[in-house]
Structure formats: structure tokens, C-alpha cells
Write a structure and sequence with these properties.
Helix content: 40-55%
Strand content: under 5%
CATH class: Mainly Alpha
Strand order of the largest sheet: 1-2
Distance between the termini: 12 Å
CATH topology: Four Helix Bundle (Hemerythrin (Met), subunit A)
Radius of gyration: 15 Å
Structural class: mainly alpha
Order of helices and strands: HHHHEEH
Largest sheet: 2 strands, antiparallel
Number of domains: 1
Shape: globular
Length: 158
């Protein structure tokens, strides 16, 4: 199953995003498609360690175990799941076009896999889930990708 998630992230996710009309409104949330793509790119940078997060959401050990249990489950993120690190109003886009944003996302996904291919024991810090290994990062990115695809009306066939 992990290989399917890796393949999905590397080879299918961005192609699915490319099929969404650029003016598509989200089913929930405030981000435009391009804002969501750039947001996702930022999360991939965190997963690869390119962007470091030193702060950790305050958890006691029991809460962190529950967070990891949720992360590794097939339970989806709920609609409008709050992220305390994001402002109430989405950030303005940084790329000139959606196409550029999608190209940036693919580049960062490729970099993520390259980094972990070079160092399979690498741990990167996520503000909520703590220090994550490769398998946990793949699971988080996959779960996050499905969440945002659903946000823009893309339903995957099982």
C-alpha cells in the first residue's frame, strides 16, 4: 500500500490537480485552487526538511500517540480542519499562474523523494504530528492530498 501512496504522490496527484478548472470554487474553505496548490507545496517543503519547524503543537505523550494513530489510519481529515499556523485569510498567491504553481509543487514532491532516498532514516518535524519518518510523511502527504482533492470535487475510485 505504501508504494501505491508513493506512486500516487509522485505521478498522479499533480496530474489530477491539472485537470481541475482554474476557476473551480472549493466545496469548503477559503483558498482558491492556486492558493491550495501553493499551501500544499509548503507542506511538502516541511516534509522534506527544506522548511524546518522548530515549534511543536503542545501535546502530552498520550495526545501525541493519538495524533500518530490518526495519522497512520485511513480516517480522512475533516472538512475545514483548522491549521493554527495558517492565517484566517489565505495568503496571496506567489506564482504568476496556476501552471507555475503546479510545476513548483511537482518539483518539491520530486525533491521530497530524493531527500529520503538519500537518507532513509531522516526525521522531519511537523508542528502537529512531531518528528516524522519517511513512511509517516508519505502517509501525511497522501492523506492531505486526498483532503484537498475532495475540497475541489475530485473523487478517486477505490
Amino acid at each position: 500500500m505504501e508504494n501505491q501512496k508513493e506512486d500516487f504522490l509522485q505521478y498522479r496527484f499533480v496530474d489530477l490537480l491539472r485537470q481541475i478548472p482554474s476557476d473551480m470554487l472549493p466545496h469548503w474553505g477559503k483558498m482558491s485552487l492556486q492558493q491550495m496548490v501553493e499551501h500544499f507545496t509548503d507542506t511538502v517543503k516541511i516534509a522534506s526538511g527544506k522548511t524546518s519547524q522548530q515549534k511543536l503543537h503542545p501535546h502530552n505523550p498520550e495526545q501525541l500517540v493519538k495524533a500518530h494513530s490518526f495519522l497512520m489510519s485511513d480516517k480522512p481529515f475533516k472538512e475545514n480542519t483548522p491549521n493554527p499556523l495558517l492565517p484566517e485569510v489565505p495568503a496571496p498567491v506567489r506564482n504568476k499562474t496556476l501552471k507555475e504553481a503546479l510545476n513548483e509543487l511537482q518539483k518539491e514532491i520530486d525533491y521530497f523523494f530524493l531527500v529520503f532516498n538519500k537518507n532513509e532514516h531522516l526525521l522531519t518535524r511537523h508542528f502537529y504530528f512531531g518528528d516524522l519518518n519517511y513512511q509517516m510523511n508519505v502517509q501525511l502527504l497522501y492523506k492531505h492530498a486526498l483532503h484537498h482533492l475532495r475540497q475541489f470535487g475530485v473523487q478517486l475510485q477505490p
